[in-house]
Design brief:
Length: about 80
């Protein structure tokens, strides 16, 4: 009878431990970081990053200014693909 009580007590203790471990292992659900978070965490002093941003701005301006000249846009598209 005593061994049955010890077995039941140890079983309850192990069940509680398993539940606690399962809860501790679950990660809270978080969405991806927002644009403002990414912009705030980015080191904007990196020269290659500034060059990359400048390159994209120039490509965007070329696309906007050449919207009536389809041959320029075709050339621009082909140069971007290489």
């Amino acid at each position: 009878m005593v061994s049955l009580a010890i077995w039941a007590s140890s079983r309850e203790t192990s069940t509680v431990r398993m539940r606690t471990a399962a809860v501790a292992m679950e990660q809270p659900l978080h969405g991806p970081p927002g644009l403002s978070t990414i912009l705030a965490r980015t080191d904007w002093a990196e020269p290659w990053l500034l060059g990359l941003a400048g390159f994209h701005v120039l490509c965007f301006l070329l696309t906007c200014f050449s919207f009536q000249h389809y041959r320029v846009q075709i050339g621009h598209f082909l140069c971007m693909g290489e």
